[in-house]
Amino acid sequence: MPETVQVGLFGADRIEAFRSELRRISRRRQTLKDELMELNAATRISLDLTTVATLRAEELI
Fold it and tell me: Given its phi and psi angles, is residue 3 left (phi above 0), alpha (psi -120 to 50 degrees) or beta?
């Protein structure tokens, strides 16, 4: 069985700082995703009467 050596490259305080930053970035990412979804849902487009009639005929609106 090969011998192994465990070496810590970062101290515990540095690792906690990384984790804290990751949590902060993850929350920000989720906030941005939520804002994007809200903007996409709120986007309205104008349709001509022919398009509206077609969409209604296909029961899409």
Answer: beta
pLDDT digits (tens, 9 = 90+) for 9-47: 888 899 999 999 999 999 999 999 999 999 888 878 889
Q: How far is CA 30 from CA 14, 16, 35, in A?
A: 24, 21, 9
CA 61/CA 56 separation, integer angstroms? 5
Per-domain residue ranges of the chain: 12-57
Regarding pTM above 0.70, the answer is: no
Distances (CA, A) of 1 to 5, 25, 32, 42: 13, 41, 49, 62
DSSP for residue 47: -
